[in-house]
Amino acid sequence: MSVPPVGNTASSNSGSSTNQTAAAPTLDYNSFLTLLMAEMKNQDPTNPMDSTQYVAQLATFSQVGQAVQTNSKLDQLLQSSALSQAGSIIGHTVTSADGTVSGTVSEVKVLSDGITAVLSNGQELSIGAGVTIQ
After folding, report:
1. Quick check: 128 and 112 in contact, CB under 8 A?
2. CA 131, 125, 76, 36 torsion-angle sign
3. CB burial of residue 117 (10 Å; 0-12, 13-18, 19+)
4. Residue 130 DSSP one-character state
5. I need a surface site. Which of 90, 108, 109, 129 has the fewest CB within 10 A?
6. Strands 114-119 and 124-127
7. Per-residue pLDDT at 26
8. pLDDT at position 47 over 70
9. CA dihedral 39, 45, 49, 50 (to 10 degrees)
10. CA torsion sign, 68 to 69 to 73 to 74?
11. pTM score, two decimals?
């Protein structure tokens, strides 16, 4: 099974060329498995898939599975690191980059977009570039 190239492709129409930019498709682990199984079920029995192509696709399948596991482990590691960093600022004084918000951190929230400090006065401050922690 061949997959058409993705990205900038040149096409000719009446002697002129145009560049078309296609968004990169996303193919997750389950989609890849479904596609591979559909290909195997629908192959022509009188002209089966070349064994080298079959082995190459199985190797790709294995690589996709390993990449999914690696990404999962990396997400767990990053979350653990964020929790460790978040816990270390409790009790410290933080000041926003522009100096308008300042206070002692009473608790922290680890959200998908980063760490938010809840100050003792109830204000919340997103921990990011320019924030001072003392």
Report:
1. no
2. negative
3. buried
4. T
5. 129
6. antiparallel
7. 61
8. yes
9. 170
10. negative
11. 0.43
Cα(121)–Cα(49) distance, rounded to whole angstroms? 68
Q: 11-31: per-residue pLDDT in tens?
A: 444 444 444 445 555 666 677
**CA-CA distance, 89 to 50, in Å (whole number)?**
59
At 96, list the tokens: 């926003």
pLDDT at residue 68 is higher than 50 = yes
DSSP-derived letter for residue 92 is S
- Which among 59, 121, 56, 133 has a CA at the least distance from the CA of 92? 133
Q: Which tokens is 16 given?
A: 């002129």
pLDDT of residue 2: 43
Q: Which amino acid is present at 78?
A: L
For 116, the token pair is 């938010």
CA neighbours closer than 13 Å in the CB half-sphere of residue 80: 6
Q: Which residue has the tokens 């058409």?
A: 4
